[in-house]
């Protein structure tokens, strides 16, 4: 479903701020796979998601999604294939527009724009049913501005909007990290539910080792712009948090990880 | 009533602009300053098209397109090159200034004589007061617009636009092309602004290149005021609030005027009012935050109601009679109210107003006793000008006096049912106050005059003899400045030892640099025609000029003490005094229809002896004797008083006779003729013998200027007029019914209606007729090409002179053994086809005689004929250098000499009626020897001998 071949990207090339964010990365994700991504800060996890979303084109290498070469396609040009939820719950919705209007905008993803009043009664009925499935009591507030909702509610709606047109690929970038524990659990539950119901091909960046192991059927570990560990479903089932930490220690011995990084991983994931 | 309704109308007209600003500022979160330019662009496009005969509704569509293009340009610069939005807007706004000048072709287009949407609307008026009807109709249109706009923002496209403004990342992640949506949104917003500009231009009756200045501020203020009045989440109400905000803003300004506040304070008041609405609405929002549904719904209505109550209360208070003592005076039955408005604060306009008020008092019209004077000043703001005029109408002014051109232009539009007297207007004909001094709008009269640049130049030449490089600086966006400079150049035309060096500025900030650039070009003297911008930065000019030891000569006496060497200009106090006398005549019962426009009569000539000493210049005694003001004042202080009118300056020596040479355009042919006239006058000794003073005036190819000049020649009572070119003859003949006039460089005077035959002509006009020498071409062609049989002739039947030539050719061709093959062309696009058709008919020679349609495609025709090796014959000698084979044309230098000789006959006492029109065609023959060689044609020695030029070359 997703094929990245030799994907290489430098930001601010030639300046002191040059960052070699992705270094000839190869990644192949099959249809229906739910991949969790872990790694240190600056290892390129979010950059990988942005690369799939189309925020930038690679310096070298190719990307294809669902068999379509999208290497040079801009974000809006591949939005019919890809949907995403950002870490920041305020990024996924338009605060000044109502819940219904936001949902309607999401339902137009991948369709041409027309100057017609598309948000009709039938549409609103449909949105009402969908919002009801979130079990947050938002179905009676369809005309309220989204800006008046809590971060958890907004993130749940963003998730709903992302899966509304059943995208071929769903990108989740630490989408629960900014939420309180209760909301985070709720959004996580919805995530599992939506992905399972629709069999969505999903990439999810997480900083929680437990989430990484419990969710999905494949885990990859990134470091310095490369995939350094790829754990399939069979191995994943047997894997424990300790195993992962041992794996980090191994990497250190192979001098792929410094002590500082190891310490950072320990703090982040345990 | 008119004041308030007028303000509502203005508010509704500007509401479209405000909606545009709402779109960019609120929906797109984009501080788009393009509107200052796109507003003008809309007005410019609409006005230019209406003048060109386009339907006003269609013109409005063009305004939409031009505005949208401007907005799209800003958005493209912003999205494509990632340039900050504010900066992109500034770039486009700056560029639009030039574009707008190009669109209009000048800085101001009057629309008074043209149909507009508002004149169409007036025609549908069922009998309501005009302003009320306009407000109603506009209100209805705006209501429809409001609903459409609100609905649009709720469509799929509208939703995507709003998302793009609030959260572009989300829009992009949801598959929306953000850049495209920004372009679309800014185009829509500025399209609305453009329509608003187009409507305002049609409403106020003219478009001006400065009409958009400050639009963005008004737009933002209106948006904020509207939002505070109706604090609503609902989009529909938000859009309504924007429309209302625009109306409230105009009502506020009307209120300020109503209360008699100084318009200087208007801008400050606007700021305070906006601040107050913001703060008050915040307070109210906080106080009621906890209240339940119903009150929350009511809140906007509360705020709005309060604002309306305050406005109404202030209005009521202001409507009360001004004071207790007015009761006693109300007893005097008729105290006419005279509204006086000047456009801006500047010395000239202030002097005019002072002269007006003083003279009115002398004539017995004393403010507060025998009349009421309402003196207002718009401080340079066009919208304020309209509101002041509305106020005069509301107060029931019996007569309105407008000082300055912009004030008069606005007045002509608004004041139609009562007398209007204007003062200090350079050229009332340009703004369509009338077509001549006596034929003018029935309710309008006034005093006018443009700076006498010819006399200024004469003064300069008396002080600084010898060849001169003359420098001038002006701001081309000011119509009157352009006009004055054109007059200066005209006055210089024909004086070979003068050269003109110009520098233009766009604002006072560039004046110093412009002055320096002229000094670097080595100018000997700066002659500055009246220009508000230059005069207000005069100190900058003087400081540079003084450092370079160059004298400065201007037209405003006020500037003498600022360091001008010499000043020659009208005494604007006298303009006000003359206007006061016109006001007096109207108040005494005369109908303005019967009062001709008056030109100011009194000149001031000022000299600065200190500057002269600094520059080591000696002022000739006769120049000193002419001065009415000396600076610094000397013992001979008797002279510092204004000269009694009529002044000796306009007729310096009674013995001298004055001849005006009037040209329509500075084309090579006309300049040849002019040279002929001048040399004939010089060499015949007439110049000295008759004590003749010659002024050359050129209309620079512009019809309205030509009319003005022709009228001016008559008004100045020149003793003789020589007109060169057909149009100059027509223009002069229209106004000149008694001054002896001689024309030259005219193909067929009988077509102009001036004459029926050489002996039957308008009694004061005679001259020289110069037909194209068609026969000479045929004769010479027969000599060179003894075998040739068929001559092809292509011509446009729509051209009078072409028809005359063709008739002649038809008559004469058989006499020289040719048969004529004709082709008609009606447009430049048909020319080549026509010539190909002739070539297909086996023509041996090709001939066209001064047909301008044919000439428009000269090069292509010449090329085609060259390929077919068919010689090209013509009546214009310059064609030979461009590839014609043979040309026999009139020698216009000799035509000029003949014209001059005719003029001298009149000066020596012959009556023009008794002098028949002379048919005179001095032939010059040009042959292209290169082509002759190429075509292997041997030129007969007789022809070579006759030829004035054997040029060649392609």
SSE topology string of chain A? EEEHEEEHHHEHEHEEHHH
Counted up, domains of chain B total: 5
Helix content of chain B: 40-55%
- What would the CATH topology of chain A be? Rossmann fold
Give the CA-CA distance, first to last residue of chain B: 72 Å
Number of strands of chain A: 10
Q: What is the alpha-carbon Rg of chain B in Å?
A: 33 Å
Portion in helices of chain A? 25-40%
Low-confidence stretches of chain A: none
What is the secondary structure topology, with strand pairs?
The complex is a heterodimer of chains A (270) and B (954).
Chain A (H helix, E strand, L loop, with lengths): L1 E10 L7 E11 L4 E6 L5 H9 L6 E6 L2 E2 L12 E4 L13 H9 L13 H12 L18 H14 L4 E5 L7 H18 L2 E5 L3 H6 L3 E6 L2 E6 L1 H6 L2 H13 L5 H11 L1
Parallel strand pairs in A: 3-8, 3-9, 6-7, 7-8
Antiparallel strand pairs in A: 1-2, 1-4, 4-5, 9-10
Chain B lengths: L1 H26 L7 H17 L4 H25 L4 H20 L3 E3 L6 H7 L6 H25 L1 H11 L1 H6 L4 H27 L1 E3 L6 H15 L5 H24 L7 H22 L5 H27 L6 H4 L7 E6 L4 H16 L9 E6 L4 H13 L4 E5 L1 H10 L5 E6 L18 E5 L4 H11 L4 E7 L4 H14 L5 E7 L6 H10 L4 E3 L4 H5 L1 H10 L4 E3 L11 E5 L1 H16 L10 E2 L3 E6 H6 L6 H6 L2 E3 L25 E7 L4 H16 L2 H4 L2 E7 L4 H13 L4 E5 L1 H10 L5 E6 L18 E5 L4 H11 L5 E6 L4 H13 L6 E6 L6 H10 L4 E4 L3 H4 L2 H11 L3 E3 L3 H4 L4 E5 L1 H16 L10 E2 L3 E5 L1 H6 L6 H6 L8
Parallel strand pairs in B: 3-4, 3-5, 5-6, 6-7, 7-13, 8-9, 8-10, 10-11, 11-12, 14-15, 16-17, 16-18, 18-19, 19-20, 20-26, 21-22, 21-23, 23-24, 24-25
Antiparallel strand pairs in B: 1-2, 12-14, 25-27
């Amino acid at each position: 479903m997703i094929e990245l071949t030799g994907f290489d990207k430098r930001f601010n090339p030639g300046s002191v701020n040059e960052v070699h964010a992705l270094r000839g990365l190869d990644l192949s994700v099959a249809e229906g796979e739910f991949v969790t991504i872990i790694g240190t800060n600056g290892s390129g996890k979010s950059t990988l998601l942005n690369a799939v979303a189309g925020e930038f084109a690679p310096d070298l290498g190719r990307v294809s999604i669902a068999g379509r070469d999208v290497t040079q396609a801009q974000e809006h040009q591949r939005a019919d294939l890809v949907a995403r939820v950002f870490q920041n719950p305020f990024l996924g919705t338009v605060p000044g527009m109502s819940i219904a209007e936001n949902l309607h905008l999401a339902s137009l993803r991948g369709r041409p724009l027309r100057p017609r009043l598309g948000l009709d009664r039938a549409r609103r009925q449909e949105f009402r049913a969908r919002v009801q499935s979130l079990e947050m009591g938002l179905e009676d507030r369809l005309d309220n501005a989204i800006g008046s909702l809590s971060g958890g509610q907004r993130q749940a709606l963003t998730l709903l909007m992302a899966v509304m047109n059943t995208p071929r690929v769903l990108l989740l970038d630490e989408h629960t990290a900014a939420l309180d524990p209760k909301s985070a659990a709720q959004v996580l539950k919805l995530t599992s539910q939506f992905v399972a119901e629709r069999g969505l091909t999903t990439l999810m960046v997480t900083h929680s080792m437990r989430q990484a192991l419990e969710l999905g059927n494949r885990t990859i570990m990134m470091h310095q712009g490369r995939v350094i560990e790829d754990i399939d479903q069979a191995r994943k089932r047997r894997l424990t948090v300790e195993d992962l930490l041992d794996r980090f220690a191994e990497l250190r011995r192979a001098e792929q990880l410094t002590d500082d990084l190891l310490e950072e991983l320990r703090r982040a994931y345990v | 009533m008119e004041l308030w309704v007028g303000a509502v109308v203005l508010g509704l007209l500007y509401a479209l602009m405000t909606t545009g600003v709402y779109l960019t500022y609120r929906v797109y979160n984009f501080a788009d300053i393009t509107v200052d330019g796109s507003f003008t662009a809309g007005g410019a496009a609409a006005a230019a098209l209406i003048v060109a005969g386009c339907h006003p509704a269609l013109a409005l569509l063009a305004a939409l397109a031009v505005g949208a293009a401007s907005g799209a340009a800003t958005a493209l610069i912003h999205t494509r090159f990632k340039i900050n939005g504010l900066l992109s807007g500034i770039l486009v706004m700056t560029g639009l200034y030039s574009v707008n000048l190009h669109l209009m072709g000048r800085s101001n287009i009057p629309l008074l004589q043209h149909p507009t949407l508002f004149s169409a609307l007036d025609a549908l008026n069922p009998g309501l007061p005009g302003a009320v009807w306009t407000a109603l109709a506009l209100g209805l249109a705006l209501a429809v617009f409001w609903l459409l706009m609100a609905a649009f923002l709720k469509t799929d496209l509208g939703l995507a636009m709003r998302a793009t403004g609030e959260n572009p990342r989300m829009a992009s992640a949801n598959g929306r092309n953000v850049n495209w949506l920004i372009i679309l949104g800014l185009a829509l917003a500025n399209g609305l602004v453009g329509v608003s500009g187009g409507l305002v231009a049609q409403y106020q009756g003219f478009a001006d290149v400065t009409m958009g200045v400050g639009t963005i501020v008004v737009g933002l203020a209106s948006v904020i005021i509207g939002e505070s009045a109706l604090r609503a989440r609902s989009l529909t109400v938000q859009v309504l609030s924007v429309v209302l905000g625009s109306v409230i803003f105009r009502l506020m300004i009307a209120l300020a005027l109503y209360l008699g506040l100084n318009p200087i304070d208007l801008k400050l008041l606007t700021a305070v009012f906006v601040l107050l609405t913001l703060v008050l609405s915040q307070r109210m929002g906080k106080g009621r935050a906890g209240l339940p549904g119903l009150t929350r719904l009511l809140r906007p209505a509360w705020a709005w109601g309060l604002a309306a109550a305050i406005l109404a209360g202030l209005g009521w208070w202001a409507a009360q009679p001004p004071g207790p003592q007015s009761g006693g005076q109300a007893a005097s039955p008729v105290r006419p109210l005279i509204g006086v408005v000047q456009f801006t604060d500047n010395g000239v306009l202030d002097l005019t107003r002072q002269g007006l008020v003083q003279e009115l008092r002398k004539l017995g019209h004393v403010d507060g006793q025998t009349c009421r004077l309402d003196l207002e000043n718009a401080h340079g703001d066009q919208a304020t000008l309209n509101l002041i005029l509305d106020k005069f109408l509301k107060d029931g002014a019996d007569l309105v006096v407008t000082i300055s051109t912009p004030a008069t232009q606005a007045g002509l539009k608004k004041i139609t049912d009562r007398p209007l007297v204007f003062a200090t207007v350079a050229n009332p004909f340009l703004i369509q106050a009338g077509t001549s001094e006596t034929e003018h709008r029935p309710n309008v009269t006034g005093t006018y005059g443009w700076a006498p640049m010819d006399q200024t130049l004469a003064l300069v030449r008396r002080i600084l003899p010898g060849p001169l490089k003359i420098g001038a600086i002006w701001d081309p966006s000011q119509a009157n400045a352009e006009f004055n400079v054109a007059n200066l150049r005209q006055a210089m035309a024909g004086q070979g030892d003068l050269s003109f060096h110009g520098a233009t500025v766009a604002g006072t900030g560039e004046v110093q640099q412009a002055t320096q650039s002229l000094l670097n070009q080595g100018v000997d003297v700066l002659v500055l025609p009246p220009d508000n911008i230059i005069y207000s930065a005069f100190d900058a000019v003087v400081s540079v000029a003084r450092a370079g030891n160059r004298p400065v000569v201007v037209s405003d006496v006020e500037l003498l003490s600022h360091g001008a060497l010499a000043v020659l200009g009208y005494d604007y106090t006298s303009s006000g005094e003359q206007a006061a006398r016109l006001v007096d005549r109207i108040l005494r019962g005369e109908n303005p229809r019967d009062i001709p426009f008056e030109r100011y009569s009194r000149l001031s000539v000022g000299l600065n002896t200190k500057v002269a000493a600094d520059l080591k210049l000696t002022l000739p005694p006769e120049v000193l004797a002419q001065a009415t003001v000396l600076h610094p004042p000397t013992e001979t202080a008797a002279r510092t008083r204004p000269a009694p009118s009529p002044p000796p300056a306009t007729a310096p020596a009674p013995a001298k006779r004055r001849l005006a040479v009037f040209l329509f355009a500075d084309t090579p042919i006309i300049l040849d003729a002019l040279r002929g006239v001048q040399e004939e006058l010089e060499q015949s000794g007439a110049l000295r013998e008759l004590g003749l003073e010659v002024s050359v005036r050129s209309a620079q190819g512009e019809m309205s200027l030509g009319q003005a000049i022709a009228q001016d020649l008559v008004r100045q009572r020149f003793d003789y007029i020589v007109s060169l070119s057909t149009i100059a003859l027509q223009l002069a003949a229209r106004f000149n019914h008694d001054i002896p006039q001689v024309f030259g460089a005219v193909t067929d005077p009988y077509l102009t209606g001036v004459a029926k035959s050489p002996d039957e002509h308008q009694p004061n006009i005679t001259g020289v007729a110069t037909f194209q020498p068609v026969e000479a071409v045929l004769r010479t062609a027969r000599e060179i090409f003894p075998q040739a049989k068929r001559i092809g002739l292509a011509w446009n039947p729509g051209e009078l002179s072409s028809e005359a030539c063709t008739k002649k050719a038809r008559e004469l061709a058989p006499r020289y053994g040719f048969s004529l093959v004709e082709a008609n062309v009606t447009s430049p696009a048909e020319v080549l086809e026509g010539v190909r058709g002739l070539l297909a008919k086996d023509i041996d020679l090709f001939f066209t005689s001064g047909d301008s349609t044919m000439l428009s495609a000269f090069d292509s025709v010449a090329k085609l004929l060259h390929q077919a090796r068919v010689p090209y014959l013509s009546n214009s000698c310059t064609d030979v250098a461009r590839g014609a084979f043979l040309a026999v044309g009139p020698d216009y230098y000799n035509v000029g000499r003949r014209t001059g000789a005719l003029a001298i006959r009149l000066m020596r006492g012959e009556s023009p009626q008794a002098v028949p029109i002379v048919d005179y065609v001095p032939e010059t023959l040009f042959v292209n020897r290169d082509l002759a060689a190429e075509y292997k044609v041997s030129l007969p020695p007789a022809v070579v001998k006759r030829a004035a030029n054997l040029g060649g070359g392609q």
